[in-house]
Write a structure and sequence with these properties.
This protein is globular. It contains 17 helices and 19 strands.
């Protein structure tokens, strides 16, 4: 199967499965594509490499955020605002667009179909709480064209009618249906209700990872090879194949190839460890082009070497980190200096948080090193005892990939969080960590903490402008430090595709009968507003499913 372009399909006299549309990957994009293709009259088969009993894709592990523009917003303005996020081609001060050839058609498509996202979700599960989808305030990027007229709105969140997420300490996947919220509610509506309950004819093959696309001599993709229980399956796709199997967060070679800086050891992701770039690799073998592969929805997060899978590949498993802009904490680089307004890392009212990884991968060309990989969040006993420093009810901790206790002390015992009676002793421990590389200046750390505490007392961060409400002195012993890396929920760059969600080769020509949607081919190439990935799961997944179902069988 190494030479896909010369494959003789006459050799395929036997197919183990046959469907009009074959979808690879059952997250939000795959589910949306499968539902739409089914509703357009096509038979659908979905391949998923995770087991059904522990099926935790990024969609499910996410915060469940969505974009829901105000219906009174101007449609042309909405398209212009989307174009700025997707490409930036229409921003006067930008040198070039991120996908210049297709940015207008992509933003025009999205501007229309985004208005159907919430009705589509509610149609799958009418017991979703409509109040969770109400837009309040403005979108993040006020500097983008047509911001005011677009009325794009901030991120809204998916939840069921009895959700009490603000008071929940139980992971949402363990809650009954009507109490689910976030990514769990989004996933439940699409997969458990949209497919399993309402469309049982959609075939779901779990523990069946796709390994190869089957391509004819004319380049058309007409099937998939998958593995199930040690047996190779041949699956015929009468109309098309849709790739929706996520990014490359846990692919060692792709991280080394695509991510900036130390891509393997110096990044962390807190989504599904099953996202290993399989779809990107398969697409490359049939001639697909790539675009902006280094892009990620990322900021700066904690990560830990836990479990044989991650240790064997040398990759850390991230955790959604809540301490980074809380009172009684500050962040320093490997030299012991603050370098940012920590508030920007988690502030939902500003546009920067999922672009913050750019700060973390800053390169010191005079010293030829990345001084902020890792960075260190320092906090005191007041903060440690106030609650967990990572998200307990979602992400890798909430879904059982990482252990954590609400008092944070299990992480201290494991050595994931350093502990000392004084700042000076803590600085000595940080310097002794191999990843600090003996860069830390103990006196600089003590000076930095003193300066920060004085700013807290004055109620003004004159150095970086952090809001007083997020500040509190780091003064109550014992003191703690935890490593932070550039990273977040997922990568965004990958397979190139057009507005019809057809996969394109390096010349920009569609590969026949191959479509894609989701983070494997994200449309948000320039800037990312929280909730964009789940939004495009539905928008682009439905477009891919509809267009795949329209094709005539081969």
């Amino acid at each position: 199967m190494s030479n896909q372009a010369s494959l003789n399909t006459k050799a395929f006299k036997h197919w183990d499965y046959d469907a009009d549309v074959v979808v690879i990957g059952l997250g939000g994009a795959g589910a949306s594509a499968a539902i739409e293709a089914h509703d357009c009259g096509a038979s659908v088969l979905v391949l998923e490499k995770q087991a059904e009993s522990a099926h935790f894709p990024n969609t499910r592990m996410s915060g469940g955020g969505l974009h829901n523009p105000h219906p009174d917003g101007n449609r042309a303005a909405r398209a212009a605002f989307l174009k700025a996020m997707m490409s930036g081609e229409n921003i006067p001060w930008k040198l070039e667009g991120e996908m210049t050839d297709r940015s207008w058609e992509m933003s025009e498509m999205f501007a229309d179909h985004i208005m159907d996202v919430v009705p589509f979700l509610m149609a799958q599960s009418p017991e979703l709480d409509p109040h969770g989808f109400l837009s309040h305030g403005d979108a993040s990027f006020s500097m983008f064209p047509e911001f005011a007229a677009a009325k794009y709105g901030r991120t809204v969140h998916c939840r069921y009618i009895n959700c009490k997420s603000a008071h929940n300490t139980i992971p949402p996947y363990q809650l009954p249906k009507l109490q689910k919220y976030g990514g769990e509610a989004f996933f439940w509506a699409l997969v458990e209700e949209g497919i399993k309950l309402r469309r049982p004819k959609i075939a779901l093959l779990y523990e069946s990872p796709a390994i190869e696309l089957i391509q004819r001599n004319d380049q058309a993709v007409i099937g998939v090879l998958a593995v199930q229980g040690g047996r190779t399956l041949r699956i015929r796709a009468n109309r098309a194949v849709i790739l929706t199997c996520g990014g490359f967060e846990f692919s060692l070679p792709m991280r080394k190839a695509f991510l900036e800086g130390p891509g393997a050891s110096g990044w962390s992701f807190y989504g599904s460890p099953y996202n290993t770039g399989d779809g990107i690799e398969m697409a490359l073998r049939v001639g697909a082009g790539l675009v902006k592969v280094s892009k990620a929805a990322a900021r700066i997060e904690a990560a830990f070497p836990y479990g044989t899978h991650y240790l064997s590949e040398g990759l850390k498993l991230g955790a959604s980190t809540t301490v980074t802009s809380k009172p009684n904490s500050l962040i320093i680089d490997n030299h012991g200096k603050r370098f940012c307004n920590e508030q920007l890392i988690t502030d939902s009212n500003r546009p920067y948080r999922y672009q913050f990884y750019k700060e973390a991968v800053q390169f010191d060309m005079m010293k030829m090193l990345y001084p902020r990989i890792p960075s260190w969040v320092i906090f005191d006993e007041t903060r440690r005892s106030a609650g967990p420093v990572v998200r307990m009810t979602g992400s890798t901790v909430g879904y059982g990939f990482l252990p954590w206790t609400a008092d944070n002390m299990d992480a201290v015992r494991r050595g994931w969080i350093l502990k000392a009676d004084t700042i000076e002793e803590l600085a000595v421990q940080i310097r002794a960590d191999p990843e600090n590389r003996n860069l830390l200046n103990t006196a600089a750390v003590m000076e930095t903490v003193d300066k920060f505490n004085n700013a807290c007392s004055a109620g003004r961060d004159s150095e970086f402008g952090r809001s007083p409400v997020t500040m509190g002195p780091v003064k109550t012993p014992p003191f703690y430090a935890m490593k932070l890396y550039p990273g977040g929920p997922n990568t965004k760059g990958g397979i190139d595709a057009d507005a019809q969600r057809r996969v394109l080769n390096w010349a920009g020509i569609p590969i026949p009968r191959l479509f894609t949607a989701g983070e494997i081919s994200s449309v948000f190439k320039f800037a990312y507003q929280a909730g964009g990935n789940l939004t495009e799961c539905i928008v682009c997944g439905r477009v891919a499913g509809r267009n795949a179902a329209k094709l005539k069988p081969w």
